[in-house]
Specification:
single chain, mainly alpha, 5 helices, about 10% strand
Amino acid sequence: MTANKRRGEIAAELDGKTYRLCLTLGALAELEATYAADDLGALVERFSRGRLWALDMIRIVGAGLRGGGNDIADDEVGSMQAANGVAGFTAIVADLLTATFGGASGPATNP
């Protein structure tokens, strides 16, 4: 499985399987609704604070998985394992936000 970075895709290994993740417009709309964000700018601002809760990471990874064509609910994401545990999930979120927004989203380094 190869991810097309030009399309904002990343590849991530969860539960020993490689998935394609992408924050498509639909996935971003899902996150806007989840966070009651007025627009994409508000969503970027929320994520760029560098402080994400575990639930934030579950929602972002879940939206990315669904945007990448995977039928996986957030509750399933919450029980998945990433290499290096929470640090692995943090890296996936940072990579996904960077692929989507460029440097504007900032790294999600402080879960």
